[in-house]
Amino acid sequence: MADARAVDRTRSLLRPDTPSTLRADGVLDVRRPENGPTESRAAQRLMRFGPLATIYERAWRPLFRLWMGVSGPTVDVERTFAVRDLGLVDDGTRVVLDVACGPGNFTRFLAESLADAGRRDALVVGLDASEPMLARAARDTARTVRTDSTGSTDLADHVAYVLGDARELPFEDGSVDAVCCYAALYLVPEPMRVFAELVRVLRPGGRLAVMTTVRRGPAVVADAMATAVRPSGLTVFGADDFTDVLHRAGFEAVEQRIHGAAQFVTGRKR
Prior knowledge:
Layout: H1 4-13, E1 21-22, E2 28-29, H2 42-47, H3 52-68, H4 75-85, E3 95-99, H5 105-116, E4 123-128, H6 131-142, E5 145-148, E6 151-154, E7 159-163, E8 176-182, H7 191-201, E9 202-213, H8 219-229, H9 241-248, E10 252-259, E11 262-268
Parallel strand pairs: 2-7, 3-4, 3-8, 4-7, 8-9
Antiparallel strand pairs: 1-2, 5-6, 9-11, 10-11
């Protein structure tokens, strides 16, 4: 179960009117019953399929790498990108939000990176809409103990998981130092609304990092591919969709890297 301090710190970031219930599995439930069910196409239903949480990192995530092409970065390289793009090593990042965190593999890696950088007061919050994914994330995190030159640290002391809707993040404006969303925006309903929420909760000077799909090749072919996968719930984004939003929001150091049919987008909020 998440450490009480991590849960309390997470609750301090929430909007005052946000309901929050700590479940038996250690996940903080902030869903609003009045919002009703979310859109549920094939891709979204798959993310709520319990057994997928067990094989996610070994089977599902490698499928996205095939989308990027044989020259695309491995999951380990993606993690290196995230640490750099989020400024986890070279600035005063203390609170990191991992949106659509799935079973928490990436969330734990970010927490470990902060611990390695000496950020003993760091907090990493993973948010997802899938109960099976978060239940797996909480179990695995509770079993993770880090040992370094300063001794042993339970990773659960620095990680909390939140069950909620990324289209309406429960956090205050400007409440987190860094926010990431890797390999998820192409799956969620209303992805540009989610992206706007990532921008909203980021503090001035904070960093954002996203990895998702991108249209490549001749326009006719790219448009046909995007149309073909849309009924399944998958979205293939234009090359300027996210960078344009960041530029309009006044972000600095906006960067986009494209690997095959995937894009990495990062920037710093002014």
